[in-house]
Structures are given as C-alpha cells and as structure tokens.
Amino acid sequence: MSNEVLSQNEIDALLSALSTGEMDANELRKEEEARKVKIYDFKRALRFSKDQIRSITRIHENFARLLTTYFSAQLRTYVHLSVASVDQLPYEEFIRSISKMTVLNMFEMQPLQGRVLMEVNPNIAYAMMDRLLGGLGTSMNKIDRLTEIETTIISRLFERSLESYQEAWSTVIDIEPSMVEFEVNSQFLQMVSPNETVVVISLNTNVGDSSGMINLCIPQIVLEPIIPKLSGHYFMQTDRKEPEQKELQALEEQLKNAHVPVVAELGSSSITVEEFLSLQTGDVIPLKKELDEPLSLKIGHVHKFFAQPGKIKRKLAVQIIDHDKRGEING
C-alpha cells in the first residue's frame, strides 16, 4: 500500500469527483479491500511479538534510568538517557546503519548463549572520556586514532555500566554480563549471520552539551531461551516460590539469636517545665502506680508482660506474672 501524502489540491479534486458522481465511493472501498494484502519479507522475519517487544522496552527503560544515575555519578555532569526505539531487523541491516568507525563494546550475558553488542556514538564516548580526564566534556571524533590509554578508559567505563544492565534484567533472569571485546571498526565485527534477526534498542544520550545514540544489538539466538518470560502475563504473575524448610529453619535460628531490649518500667509521671527547673536534691516525684500494682515489662517499646520486682543474689530482677493483653494487640 502506498504511503504517499496527498496535497490539498489533490484532496479537493478527489472530494469534487465524489460529490459530482465521477467517482464511486463503493468502487473505492472495493479497491481498498483488494489492496489489503500484506507483503511478508522473509529476510526480515519478525521473531518477537508486540507484547515481547514491549517487555524488552520496559527492561531497557529501566536500564536507561540506571545508566543515567551511573554516568551522572561517574562524570559529575548532566547526563540523560531514554529509549528512542526498539526494532527487530536483520543483523546486516543494523551493521549498515551504524558508522564504519565507532565505539563497539561486545559482551556476554551468562547463562544465555551468544554475544550482545553495545555501539556508542564517538561524540558521546569522547565527551565522557574528556569529563573523566578533568575536561569540560568536549566531544570530538578521532576514533581511528585511539591511544591505548583512551581505549582503556572508554572500555572500562562501559564495562562497569554492565552492572546496571544486570540489574535491569533481574526481573526476568539473573545474568552475569562480562565484556569480551572492544572494537572500533564495524567491518571487523561478525556476531551472527547477516540474515539473523536482532533486536536493536536505541538510547537517546545527552552528556552536557553533547548528544548522540547508544545502540544495543541483541541477537534472537540470545533471547530465544527466555522468550516465554518476555510475555506480558509473565510480569503479572506472582513468581514467588515458597521458602524451603531449610530456609525457614535458618531464618528461625537467626531470629532466636536476635537481641531485643527488655525494660521493666517502675512507673511514670508528668511535671511542668517550671517544676522541672526548680527540682532540688531530695525532692520526691510520685509515680502513677500503686505499691502493690505489677510493673509493666516492655519488649522494645511495646508492653508485653506484667512483672513484680525482686532480687537474684545481689542483682535487681523482675518476675513475669502475666501477659499484657494490650501488648498483644499493639504488637
């Protein structure tokens, strides 16, 4: 179906033909129905449903937020990342769409098989490197003349960013991403076959006054084992497994060894600030408790027991005589 946009003159002419009877609206409908044939390109096989693409988008929106925090802390300047698009296309088409000379970080996502590519616009990479070296974040493009020190600085910066990628995927699968290769020439890069379907996530990136794109290329073979987990209903499920008996016993043992403060309260009273300021040695403050009334025993700050005072050898002590029902309600 053609996607041509009609001019205003063409629209007026079409409306005029319909109103004068030169063109039949029913014939237009039939022609439109006859055109409803969707062309399927086997070279651009769509391996992921819209629902799965939305899940991948949510994961990388979280990744963009985590990266914003990470780069802002590392570079100490304004950094903002957001998801621009998520597409599935042949690997060959992705390689043709990026610059021949660019920053390419290839990493693995164990236990998933295969490799993932993070392509960074050179302007962004140089602005980040300039900030790390104490500059203002000026961007330049001399990607074909990277020194060994510059290569190390850039690769380590993005290698540490993989911790954010691990956290972003934690709602779906526990991965351990690790950097395996750094390259600047996309022509030397061959992860999968040219016709292999890949998911390309493009992140709009702003570093100070510099802007550019960071592209993540994930081959279909990497995501294949977890495709069922990318469906929307998976995120809605409460995937909480019941704790095992050993875990419960370990938790119980830890709770048994926990220290809690125990306070035996003799009583309480209230006085004015003026009375407090005029207190002298030998003054007596009456407590709101009778002599034969049991003490309140607090666990933490909650009344739990009634007790009576006493002594054990030469130390003061209390003996529990009953539960405090109010403490059970409050506790």
Structure report:
The chain is α+β, with helices and mostly antiparallel strands and 331 residues long. It has helices spanning 8-20, 25-34, 50-75, 91-97, 122-132, 148-160, 162-168, 220-223, 232-236, 245-256, 273-277, 325-330, and strands at 79-90, 101-110, 115-120, 176-185, 197-207, 210-219, 262-265, 295-299, 302-312, 315-323. The protein has a 6-stranded antiparallel beta sheet. The longest helix is centred in the N-terminal third of the chain and has 26 residues, at 50-75. It is elongated and about 105 Å long. 22% of the residues are buried.
Summarize the structure.
The chain has 331 residues and is α+β, with helices and mostly antiparallel strands. The chain has 12 helices and 10 strands. It is 36% helix and 27% strand.
Summarize the main sheet: 6 strands, antiparallel
Sum up the overall morphology in one term: elongated
How large is the count of helical segments?
12
Helix-strand category: alpha+beta
Return the CATH topology of the largest domain: Chemotaxis protein chec
Question: Which sequence of SSEs, written as H and E, runs from N to C?
Answer: HHHEHEEHHHEEEHHHEHEEEH
CATH architecture annotation of the largest domain: 3-Layer(aba) Sandwich
Any key phrases for this structure?
about 325 residues; alpha+beta; Chemotaxis protein chec; 12 helices; about 35% helix; about 25% strand
Question: What's the layout of helices and strands?
Answer:
Layout: H1 8-20, H2 25-34, H3 50-75, E1 79-90, H4 91-97, E2 101-110, E3 115-120, H5 122-132, H6 148-160, H7 162-168, E4 176-185, E5 197-207, E6 210-219, H8 220-223, H9 232-236, H10 245-256, E7 262-265, H11 273-277, E8 295-299, E9 302-312, E10 315-323, H12 325-330
Antiparallel strand pairs: 1-5, 2-3, 2-4, 3-6, 5-6, 7-8, 8-9, 9-10
Helix pairs in contact: 3-7
